[in-house]
Amino acid sequence: MNDPRLLDIELFQHFADEHVRFCDTDALGHVNVGVYSSYFAAGRAIFDTMLASDDYILPIARIAMDLRAEIKYPNKIVVGSLLLRTGRSSFLVGQGLWIRGKPMATAEVTHVLVDRKNGRSTPLPEPFLHKLRSLGPVCAQG
Hints:
By secondary structure, this protein is α+β, with helices and mostly antiparallel strands.
């Protein structure tokens, strides 16, 4: 289960607006489970943009989603993202999806810092950590 703090929209500082498209739904009119990942990815775009570098890449090592309520078409979704924790060579982003203030889904996404030259994980250097922390307060240090 994801961190219960991810249900509190007040903790988040970075948001993206998404719209449920008709093609996002299944035969029952619910958003297909695979589409949730694309909503969360759109919400993480600020992290990807701010942290981009020619020296490293940030692949996802793990994503855990909790679907809390059905999402149907049409709807406007607010996607929030925050930094939950930093590790030696990884960091954890927490995310939430809300419709009209109601939490619909949460996710925890672990990114690993990988050196482009050798393709291996590498410790988070201080300049990277500084940029990462500038995206908002860390809820817990790992």
